Amino acid sequence: MSQKILIVGAGFAGVWGALGAARVLDGAGVRNSDVEITLISPKPELQIRPRLYESEPQRMAAPLLPLLDAVGVKFLEGSVQTIDVHDKSVRVVAADGLERSLAYDRLLLTSGSKLSRPPVPGLMEHAFSVDCIDDATALDRHFAELANLPESPERNTVAVVGCGFTGIEVATELPKRMRALFGPDAAIRVVVIGSQDDIGPDLGPNPRPYVSEAFDSLGVEAVLGSRVVSVDADGVRTESGTRIEARTVIWAGGMRASSLTAQVSSRLDPLGRIEVTSDLRVAEAPSVFVAGDVARARSDDDGHYALMSCQHAIVMGQFGGHNVAADLIGVPTLAYRQPFYATCLDLGEWGAVYSEGWDRQIKLTHAEGKARKQLINTQWIYPPAPNRTEALAAGNPLPSGS
Fold it and tell me: Residue 147, Cα to own-chain centre: how many angstroms?
């Protein structure tokens, strides 16, 4: 009977994790009949989530079946509901509603994160988001419907709740998108609302002047220092009593790890991520490895931890995939390390700002920054071609020559 590696989630960490695991088995000469790798996800596609602030979000998915076939990884269409680390099994609900239980010898949990939606009155009923393709597509349809309504200040106003990375990228993209729908002379108003006192509080001081410059250039407003306490069909109200009339409210209020983490470990950080060992293993469940947005993993020797970002998820996935297969066949695992860190923040028609290092030293801005962002968004974060040699190479967690 073959041994089983299950990978839960087909986000960035899961896809590159599958490639990393297949690469280890291929290098060791292990046959697919001896060790079976199965990737479980609701759809056989990678949603290019970092691009969902753009127009036409329905295009932001990369098919996975040809790639997985090329490296001998099976795909199971379904959603994992429970993980039993004692019985080493998962319960999956398939697309047709049928349930099945799958046993594993090793598990790689890469179930990702979801937008945090606190119990703000009216949020669930009236706010849009760009958390997944379905959500972003619903927002697109909403804008198309608004374009058929008579022009009014409320129709032409969008309130973006959240002044972090996603909120900034959404807000700065909106003026162009809205004028394309409402007309080039439409009086567009975009308001970013944040409870913090600074725009982009996690970005640090270096990128912030460029964000402010872009906001001024694009006419994006910022209302800071007070959280949103209610959302309705006609706008939002903040704790300070500010009322913003808007027919469109977009929630971009931060992320939280998949709830499956609580079934695997009791050692969770405030974002719901599992505290993992250096090789991305769960100390309480040694047959389980974790990568991507569900892992609180130290990324370097200077005390930095990986963020909920595709750049960390891809590399963590490579390490996680390597380690889950290596541990199964008795090969030494690798300590996850990702010392290089960069940030590229899209700022709409103004351009983009690209920085390197955790202190975010600015390297490119305006058009040069935009060119780098487009390269990242259209090439670097996409899976490799469904060519076995290229795909297995993409699963390598170590730089060439290491």
Answer: 30
